[in-house]
Amino acid sequence: MPTDPMHTIEIPPGEPGANRSWRKLLTALDDTERGGFAVQGPWLDGGAQYKLPVGALIVAVDHTSETEHRIRLLRVNARGRLTTERDSTFKRDRSSFGTGMRHTLARALAAHPPAAPDREPHLVQSPEPTNHYDGRCAACGHPVPANTGRLDGAPGDRHHVRHKPGDCPPAPPAEPRRNLHAQTCADCGGLIEAGAGILTSPYEGVWEVRHDGPCPPPEKKTAPPPPPRRANMLPDQCVRCGQEVPEGEGLLIDPAYRGALYTVEHNGPCPPSPADGHRTWRVIAGVPGPFNPRPGRYWQNGDIDRFTVHPRTDEGPVPRRAPGRRPGRHRSGISLIGVIVAEDPPYYNRDADGEDPSEELIGEDGWVFTGRIRAATAEEAALLLAEEAEAEIDATLSARVNRLLAWRYPDPDSGVRYLSEEELARELEDLHLVGLRTRPAPGSNFGYDGHPDLAWIADDWPWVMTTTYNGRDGDNWSLTNWRDDVALLHPMTDELRQLVTDLTARYGPGRPA
Questions:
Q1: Domain end point (choices 125, 156, 184)
Q2: Measured between alpha carbons, how far is residue 472 from residues 37, 387, 448, 452, 465 in Å?
Q3: 85: left (phi over 0), alpha (psi -120 to 50) or beta
Q4: Of 99, 125, 151, which one is at a domain's C-terminal end?
Q5: H-run or E-run covering 107
Q6: What pTM was computed for the model?
Q7: Helix, strand, coil percentages, rounded to 5, for the chain
Q8: d(Cα 35, Cα 97) in Å, to the nearest integer?
Q9: What's the rounded Cα separation, in Å, for the pair 51 and 58?
Q10: Which of these, 405, 404, 456, lies nearest to 432 by C-alpha position?
Q11: Beta strands in 77-213 (DSSP E)
Q12: Residues 319 and 352 grouped into a single domain
């Protein structure tokens, strides 16, 4: 028996306006299933082309509403075309695949049994994806009604709606882009008001503004206004007068090169300087450390301190009656009590190799601060001079203590000796300290780990005893002869008795032993 030929059949697409459509090749009927599940066979894509044998049965269902269904039974005839065996529309979902429709499908299967497995349908051409919802064309931007366009995109990616070829409406002429802000013309440099120019792009990422038409002649060209200057958001020093400019009261000066810091000047004339009518001198301070884009100030206007100055020719000499005037350290410069009246912007000095030293930084990187001082008045310098006088008294007493008293190793020719065992056995309850700061000189053990060097006396005792703690690592512990200390006895001379009197008068009587 000759085998029926296979024909290329295009499956009818879904009906326009249908909520849902599906197509199946009918190969069997399962009466145990409800509705369309009774139709057994492979699914077919609407609009696609398949190779099907003669007699193949196709069930096409279109849900035109929530309850109304159109069901068609189609058959492939001997000429390779589809013949409609039944076309029914059901108003109710329950009756769509009822007894009548199932009898029709069963009779068709009996008359046209399914083909052998080796003659099953195979896809020839997939249908073009259609948009099921309204969208906007990705090419022209115009609306695309549902089921009138096509979908673009690779499998798994997001699809974009487009018109079918030739359906995009013609694009309107493009309007030139206008400048939103007043800018200068790229051709003539004249000012173009907002919205009066045309934006052009000589190359990607760069936009320029040009006149809409020919540029005006030079005599009619409007010069652009100077760019507005920004106010300082942080307090800073004025580059003109060196005084501090509060936040928002000054103007920024653009840096001279990329990466440099902005500087600040007063908005208008500088206010009178506190140094007006006074002679001023320059002082310098260096702070080593890494670069900081905002180093701040080293001094504040009005700070009172002792400064060392090296007067220049344009500054003039320091008056001899300036408060606290004396030679500077190592006889370099002149030291005086001064008041900060201004500070210049600092600069960063790089001198890690020692080849570019500043006055305050040698072999170190750091900030160099330059201030201006005037001589303090007698009232302004009084407190600091009083503190220096007190420190001088303490230093003088400390020098006498270090000169007259031994603390660990006595000089055999001075009469100073270690406390003997016989004297150690004597009652020393009447000993008491000489003052509270017996040895406050820098470098002494006073206050060190709670064990200061001390001096002791007793009534009618011809000695002054000094004690030094001897329990630290590295000490010669064999010298310990009183408690945990090295105790030495000094003969009570007139000079030593005067020292004890001065210490007691300065620091008060000491505590008992």
A1: 125
A2: 100, 35, 11, 13, 21
A3: alpha
A4: 125
A5: helix 99-111
A6: 0.46
A7: 15, 30, 55
A8: 5
A9: 13
A10: 456
A11: 82-90, 122-125, 135-136, 143-144, 149-152, 160-163, 183-184, 191-192, 197-203, 206-211
A12: yes
Judge if 28 and 72 occupy the same domain.
yes
Look up residue 461 and give its two tokens: 């005792």
Q: Which among 245, 244, 242, 219 is positioned nearest to 231, based on CA atoms?
A: 245
**pLDDT tens across 451-489, in order?**
667 777 877 788 888 888 888 788 888 888 878 888 888
pLDDT band at 336 (very low <50, low <70, confident <90, very high): very high
Give the separation between CA 300 and CA 382, rounded to whole angstroms: 20
Look up residue 272 and give its amino acid: P
Lowest mean pLDDT: which of 127-131, 162-166, 346-350, 495-499?
Answer: 127-131
d(CA 461, CA 492): 8
Domain for residue 288, yes or no? yes
Crossing angle between the packed helical segments 378-404 and 494-507, to the nearest 10 degrees: 140
Instruction: Check pLDDT > 70 for residue 444.
Output: no
User: What is d(CA 504, CA 513) in angstroms, rounded to the nearest whole number?
Assistant: 16
Task: Please write the tens of the pLDDT for every residue from 196-250.
Answer: 888 888 877 788 899 888 888 887 777 777 778 889 988 887 877 777 888 999 9
Q: For residue range 97-135, list pLDDT tens digits in order.
A: 888 888 888 898 888 888 776 667 766 666 667 777 788
3-state SS, residue 258: coil
149 vs 146: CA distance, rounded Å: 7
Give the domain extent around 87.
Answer: 6-125
Q: Let me know how long the chain is.
A: 513
Residues 429 and 345 in one domain: no
Residue 339 has pLDDT above 90, yes or no: yes
Structure token pair of residue 425: 């056995």
Q: Which of 433, 451, 431, 435 is nearest to 398 (CA)?
A: 435
